[in-house]
Every structure is written in structure tokens, then in C-alpha cells.
Design a protein that fits this description.
Number of helices: 12
Helix content: 25-40%
Number of strands: 14
Bound molecules: adenosine-5'-triphosphate, magnesium ion
Oligomer: single chain
Strand order of the largest sheet: 6-7-8-3-9-10
Mean pLDDT: 86
Largest sheet: 6 strands, mixed
Length: 340
Amino acid sequence: MPGAIYAEGLVKTFGDVRALDGVDLDVPEGTVLGLLGPNGAGKTTTVRVLTTLLRPDRGKAVVAGIDVLGHPNEVRRAIGLSGQFAAVDEYLTGRENLQMVGQLYQMKAKAAKARATELLERFHLADAADRTAKTYSGGMRRRLDLAAALVVSPPVMFMDEPTTGLDPRNRQQLWGIIQELVAGGTTLLLTTQYLEEADHLAHDIAVVDQGKVIARGTSDQLKARTGGERVEVVVHEREHITAARQVLAGFGKGETSVELHTRKLTVPVSGGARLLAEVIRELDGRGIEIDDIGLRRPTLDDVFISLTGHAAELAGDDNGDGAAGAEPKGRKAARKETAK
Ligand SMILES: Nc1ncnc2c1ncn2[C@@H]1O[C@H](COP(=O)(O)OP(=O)(O)OP(=O)(O)O)[C@@H](O)[C@H]1O
Ligand SMILES: [Mg+2]
């Protein structure tokens, strides 16, 4: 039986651009699928097709057991959508925006009012509830838009980059809300540029690039595909690189790579923290001073780069420098692993 969200062979072209080039998805009820992909991969187009906003050229989609192409109106009643760009009415207050959604879904006025109040509290918008949305900051609009998507607690939700533009605290809070939703049985398809977000929230991840799902699995499965653990060492003196390389050769199960300008050596290993301790003892015994050492497990960043050839978090990264940004994150992860 297909899951709560099912797609088969979705194709959509815009002129010369093949935005979707045969997308297949299957999301079991009550789970979260993270759709990951670089800018222009086809994430939003997938969401638009599944939420009836766009007709595909080819393919089939079933959401909440309803055929998307055959019965779009019924699908709309069964789903909630929070788009990549917040769809709030600027000239209404936060409260009015939420009440309006309730009314669109034919809730009684009193129930819609109560639901609006509850959601405004939950999304920390109570203080701003009676101001027009025009006066809201970007993060507040985003939260209002998400609250609007939750007015009727639909069984299937779509969130297109729900936390882009949120500060870390608000992002964490939203993660909590999403987890509560899913614990309550909601099926969720979430697109994100933040690998950490997919790691944290998604049961399953589908990596999309150029309109195709190029990999899928749990975060752990995807990481395992990218390759196992590595030891990374930064030696203090450039003169020690050769000696350090000899030491690592004795522990590694593959070629040691060396980055001369950073004095960093990396070698694939197996054996975890115990092996790391041995490497440290050996280096120390030979008088090789080190600036940094860590056991690095592949992160989703590594997975992403190895699968798509680009770094992620381009859109969400204020520096706009995703490729350079991926490296320090990996290093940080390595240190975290070491500290365990
Ligand atoms: N209405 C449209 N008209 C023309 N081209 C479109 C349209 N919508 C999407 N595209 C193109 O289809 C491709 C996929 O776009 P889509 O918005 O699905 O990407 P995305 O994965 O959501 O990217 P982002 O991370 O930037 O949001 C892109 O090349 C985009 O330019
Ligand atoms: Mg998009």
C-alpha cells in the first residue's frame, strides 16, 4: 500500500528547464521525509505538484489516499502547506490571519478564534497578535505562516524550508513543534537546506538534484554510503608531516591525504576512539607535536557534497559561502566525536 505521500515518475518542464525529471517518493504514514537538495534542485516544484498547485506533465501522485490529479479539491482539504515564501496577508493582524484560515476551512467562528489564540501563544506571537502583519519581522512572518498551516491540524503536512530565516532559538522551537505534530500522527514532507535539520527531524531523507532523487535512506545509511570514519591530524610543525604520515600509515586502512598549507593529514580508519588514543600515543612517542586531532565521522554535509558535487546551505548561509562553510562544520563535528 502506498504511504501517506506517494509520487511516481513526476516530470515537469518549464521551457528548457526540466524541473522534475522522474521523481518517485513514498512516505509512510506518521513519518517525516526530508527533501534535501541544492538551489534549483526541484524541491519547491515537487511540493507544488503534491499540494495541487501545479500540474505535472507526467506522473502520478497520491496524498492521504487521494489521487492528486483526479481530486485536487479533496487533497486540499486533507493537507496543510507552509510555503517557501510566507503567505500572510500584510493588512490583517496575526490573529485575523489565523482566524481567516479557520473560516476558509469552515470552522465555527468561536472555534477559529480559540485556535488562533492557541497558535499565537505557541508560536510566541501573542504580544504582536493584534498588529498588522506588515509590521512583523521576517521571522515573525514565517512563524505566522507556519501557524496558519496548522490551524486545522491536517493529517498530511508539507513545509517548504520552514526554518529558513529563523534565528537558532526560533528554529529549535519550531523543531519541537514539528516533533510534537509528528508524534500526534501527522505525516510530513519537509524541504530544507539545513542538513542538521534533516538529521534532526527526518526519518528518511531523499536527496534531490536536477529534478531527480539521487539517493535516499536514513541519515545513518546515507552517511555510511559516503565512507566510514577518518582520523584527522593537524601537526604543529610542517617538518613533522612526513613522520606523522608514517605513523598514520600504520593505523589507516587506506591512503593518507595531506593538506600542506593547513598541515592536516586525513586517513580512513576503523576502530573508533580506542584507535584514536593509540594514534595520539604513537605521535607523542615520536615527539610529533599536534595542534588538533579528531575522529571524524561523515556528516550529512559530506554526504551532500559527495552526492551532488556542491556544498549545501547556500541559500540559508548569510556569508553565501557554502563550500567554505562546510569544512569548519565537519571539523566541529569531529571534535565533538572526539570529546565523547
Ligand atoms: N514557474 C517556473 N517557471 C520557470 N522555471 C521554473 C518555475 N518554477 C521552477 N522553475 C525552475 O525549475 C527548477 C527547480 O526549481 P525549484 O523551485 O523547484 O527548486 P528548489 O529545489 O525549490 O530550489 P531552492 O532551494 O532555491 O528553493 C529551477 O531551475 C527553476 O528555475
Ligand atoms: Mg524552493
